[in-house]
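Hypothesis: this fold can be encoded by more than one sequence.
Test: take the structure tokens below, design a sequence, compare later.
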């Protein structure tokens, strides 16, 4: 089988397309023939970062394809079943950037019949992260679905990004009023296509006033991608007992929290990292994500504010560069055919 691998960290040029033996699933594992693999910022950051934990790594946390072998003791998955992957390369050498991948059964999720492989490969990192951000509030729901966020106002920073877009779609499906901050009319159009009720251009000034005009009592949840530059704004617009759910460090590695203004509002800072969430939260997210997909509430493509950028598997380096360069939308590797001859 073909796979993209690297044996040393560095720029995208360390990625190589190689031939490897077809892996066999062990107990509790399944083998998936990959059709699409998603590329996320975490993939290029791991590739460019510290020394790999394995002699050879095949990147990719997200993917979608078809089960083609099942190991001993696996229940609920069978050969021929369409699936999507979550945490495919977490704690493992080989992720989704190959024609086949062997995964723990718990990381392989049935793909609803109405979902394309493009959508399946776009779910893992963005949608699970968004789900946790929306279910981390004080006294809020632990699961999403119609009515779960009725009466709540959700502020999504960076609504044109992959996690931001998923948060908009999941929050709206669950009944929230969704406000998102964006930079410019093009990203406002993407966030609106995703389902945001209101967009606020933070580059134009007056973001605090604009958000409070929409939500005079403050927002219930701020889904935060850039806590360093945004913390003062969040403190101003999040309501008493609200939650600031932080999933990234865009704009700075550190930020300072003013104590009295923060504790006077009984605020909760919920930091979250997909790789250490735990199986219970990942499983809950996957179930709700599948329900949203089946309902047509979680989508990709231009009409959903998620432009798709396809690259052949052999061009994985270019795909990594596109994500590192800030491509708007979802970058996908075309790994295999949906229906091979």
């Amino acid at each position: 089988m073909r796979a993209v691998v690297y044996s040393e960290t560095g720029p995208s040029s360390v990625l190589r397309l190689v031939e490897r033996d077809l892996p066999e699933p062990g107990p509790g594992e399944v083998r998936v023939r990959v059709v699409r693999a998603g590329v996320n910022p975490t993939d290029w950051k791991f590739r460019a970062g510290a020394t790999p934990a394995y002699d050879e790594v095949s990147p990719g946390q997200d993917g979608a394809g078809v089960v083609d072998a099942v190991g001993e003791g696996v229940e609920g998955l069978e050969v021929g079943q369409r699936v999507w992957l979550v945490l495919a390369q977490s704690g493992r050498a080989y992720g989704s950037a190959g024609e086949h991948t062997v995964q723990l059964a718990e990381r392989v999720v049935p793909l609803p019949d109405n979902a394309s492989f493009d959508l399946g490969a776009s779910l893992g990192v963005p949608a699970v992260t968004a789900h946790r951000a929306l279910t981390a509030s004080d006294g809020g729901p632990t699961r999403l679905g119609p009515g779960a966020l009725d009466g709540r106002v959700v502020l999504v920073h960076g609504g044109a990004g992959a996690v931001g877009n998923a948060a908009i779609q999941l929050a709206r499906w669950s009944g929230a009023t969704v406000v998102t901050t964006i930079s410019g009319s093009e990203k406002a159009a993407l966030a609106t296509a995703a389902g945001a009720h209101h967009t606020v251009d933070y580059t134009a000034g007056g973001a605090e006033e604009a958000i409070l005009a929409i939500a005079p009592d403050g927002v219930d949840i701020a889904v935060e991608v850039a806590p360093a530059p945004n913390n003062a704004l969040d403190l101003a617009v999040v309501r008493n007992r609200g939650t600031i759910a932080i999933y990234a460090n865009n704009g700075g590695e550190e930020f300072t929290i003013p104590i009295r203004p923060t504790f006077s509002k009984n605020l909760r800072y919920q930091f979250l990292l997909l790789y250490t969430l735990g199986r219970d939260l990942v499983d809950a997210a996957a179930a709700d994500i599948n329900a949203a997909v089946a309902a047509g509430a979680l989508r990709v493509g231009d009409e959903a504010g998620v432009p798709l950028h396809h690259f052949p598997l052999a061009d994985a380096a270019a795909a990594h560069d596109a994500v590192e360069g800030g491509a708007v939308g979802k970058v996908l590797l075309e790994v295999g055919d949906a229906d091979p001859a």
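The first helix runs from residue 41 to 48. The CA atoms of residues 226 and 234 lie 11 Å apart.
Hypothesis status: open.
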